[in-house]
Each structure stands twice: as structure tokens, then as C-alpha cells.
Specification:
Layout (H helix, E strand, L loop, with lengths): L23 H4 L2 H17 L3 E5 L2 E4 L9 H22 L11 H20 L2 E2 L1 H26 L1
Antiparallel strand pairs: 1-2, 1-3
């Protein structure tokens, strides 16, 4: 049977050479890339939204700690590491780059969930910023889960 001239061309997914598995770069779909990028920007914006309220005062991650402190630096890392990762990944073109491996990002997103929970627990009542932060973390995790699922089924 002759292939139809209207059939889409088959994609060259490549392999990582050593194991013959598809590379992480080849498994990224534009949809998962954009889901992760939008979630990273949303999480960065969540840094400024009120996470909790205590004694009638709203606290965001930006206002929970004074500037030159360890807690403030940890809060910045919790909310801005996905943006830094996605910016770095947009410049990486090699398919065998270690940055494409999602397992370190899985550990970081789990740590982000724990850190946001700790920030919310520190205050009295959860606010809409915490819900936005949890939602964007879940979206980023879903994008990673799709990537890992495609790698397992590859």
C-alpha cells in the first residue's frame, strides 16, 4: 500500500545514543512547554499576592520577611526558580542537556509545595494568593508529569 501524499511527515524524535531512548528535548510538546512557562510566570506573580492573613493584616511572600534575611531569600527561591529554569531551557538547544531532565524539577516542585504550605501555616487564614500559588504549582507539576509519562512510554 502506497502512503498517502497528504499524510503528515513522521517526526525524527532522535535518541540519546547510550540507551536508545528518545531524548527529553524530543519529548517536549509545545503544549507542555507553554503550560510550564505560564505556570512559572503565575508562580512568580504569586510572590506578591497575599498568601495568608493574621490579625487583620495580609502577608505575601514578599512581606512575610524583612529584606536582608534568610527567610526572604528562601521565599524568592520558592517562587522564582521555575521562571529561571524555563528561561534557561529556552536558550538550551542541545537535546542531551541535563537541564531537560525533569527529575530535579520534580524534587524542586515538591519542595515548593512544602514551602508554600509552611508560609500559609505561619499565618492565620489562607488567602487567594495561596490558592493561585498551589494552582500554578499543580499546573507545572502536570506539565512535568506529561513529560515523564511520554518518556516512560517511549
Amino acid at each position: 500500500m502506497q502512503p498517502s501524499r497528504y499524510a503528515p511527515p513522521k517526526a525524527d524524535l532522535g535518541s540519546d545514543g547510550a540507551t536508545g531512548c528518545r531524548s527529553w528535548n524530543a519529548l517536549e510538546t509545545p503544549a507542555t512547554v507553554w503550560v510550564k512557562r505560564i505556570a512559572a510566570v503565575g508562580l512568580a506573580a504569586g510572590f506578591f499576592l497575599p498568601l495568608t492573613s493574621c490579625s487583620g493584616r495580609d502577608y505575601s511572600a514578599a512581606t512575610a520577611y524583612d529584606w536582608p534575611s534568610f527567610g526572604f531569600c528562601v521565599a524568592i527561591l520558592l517562587f522564582f526558580w521555575p521562571s529561571a529554569f524555563e528561561i534557561a531551557l529556552s536558550f538550551v538547544t542541545r537535546s542531551d542537556s541535563g537541564l531537560r531532565n525533569p527529575w530535579p524539577r520534580v524534587a524542586l516542585i515538591a519542595g515548593t509545595f512544602v514551602g508554600i504550605t509552611w508560609l500559609v501555616y505561619w499565618g492565620g487564614h489562607m488567602r487567594y494568593g495561596a490558592l493561585a500559588a498551589y494552582g500554578t504549582c499543580a499546573s507545572y507539576a502536570a506539565g512535568l508529569a506529561v513529560l515523564i509519562k511520554r518518556r516512560v512510554l517511549a
